[in-house]
Design a protein that fits this description.
heterodimer, A: alpha+beta, two-stranded antiparallel ribbon, about 55% helix, B: alpha/beta, 8-stranded mixed beta sheet, 8 strands, binds adenosine-5'-triphosphate, binds magnesium ion
Chain lengths: ~80, ~270
Amino acid sequence: MLDFFKKIFNGEDNSSKGQANNRLRLVLTHDRLGTSTQLMEVIQKEIIEVIARHVEIEGTPDVKIITEGRRAALDISIPLKGR
Amino acid sequence: MDNKTAEGQVIVVTSGKGGVGKTTTVANVASALAKLGHKVMVMDLDIGLKKLDLILGLENRVIYDIVQVIEGECTLKQALVKDKRFPELHMLPAAQTRNKDDITPEQVKELCAQLKPEFDYIFIDCPAGIEQGFRNAIAAADRAIVVTNPEVSAVRDADRIIGMLESANFKDIKLVVNRIRNDMVKSGDMLSIEDLMEHLCIDLLGVVPEDKNVVVSTNKGEPIILNDHSQAATAFNNIARRILGEQVDFPTFEEISFWNKVKSLGRNLFPGN
Ligand SMILES: Nc1ncnc2c1ncn2[C@@H]1O[C@H](COP(=O)(O)OP(=O)(O)OP(=O)(O)O)[C@@H](O)[C@H]1O
Ligand SMILES: [Mg+2]
């Protein structure tokens, strides 16, 4: 999730147009999902809890939103510990 | 047209945000199509805040309005206003002293069903907002044109409207970007066409520049498409030709084809779209 925000705010473009684009990317993603940025944090925490109930997690899980066109998807990467 | 055979198409022009240029687009694209000889109807559904009659310069010719037609005070034919400059252009005026919820989506559908055999194109001028007026305006439409300005609040509202049109099963939703200023885009102070396409992900129908001639024409109540020296006029004429299915280039926006490619690539990554 943090990556998602970083990508958005680290925009190389500091013009007012660049800022408008960055703000729109973030706001449209959440408008379309009908979620707040807060809710995404909760989802991330709960997904990790469910997985951790069954298998041991190793390293740092990464849950972020990726967008393609008007569609959004959760991109979840959770490294698991082997025996 | 006399040789009219197929049923007419109903096209709603909408935006979410107010004041972005819906009525100006309806008035000019409809006039352009009528000038080319197509039989065109413009229906003002901005009940309570009508402006289409004024922008077309037909305000003194209005006798009855759409609510009177629906309530049976006059016939549909009696309420239609003909435009002397364009014999093929007709207007069904809104009521000024009534409200958006004085008519229903079913009544609009019924009216359009009566008009479709008589006209090639029926344009619906949608009010701002996402409430009853919007629901009335999209009820009978086969296609939608979303008008926006290169500005964050207008783009956010356009995105919401596109989502609502998709939920209402619209398959043909096209974008018109109005009031773009190339000098500001170049200096990095205005969203470009490519930026808007990236955010909204729908096909582009037209790009209308900011043009002071629009204000002059509006003052006079003359469609701007009659002005040969206006860039906005060229833009509206091009939109009319694209609606007819002609391939008309976007003169100064070559990069657009690139974004269309990126977009269709994105769609393919998501099955079921
Ligand atoms: N390309 C343009 N260049 C300059 N002025 C414009 C342009 N397009 C529209 N305008 C002006 O912007 C104002 C609003 O336009 P218009 O009434 O068409 O918007 P609208 O979306 O129909 O508004 P509403 O939501 O109130 O119905 C008008 O005064 C019009 O003259
Ligand atoms: Mg209007």
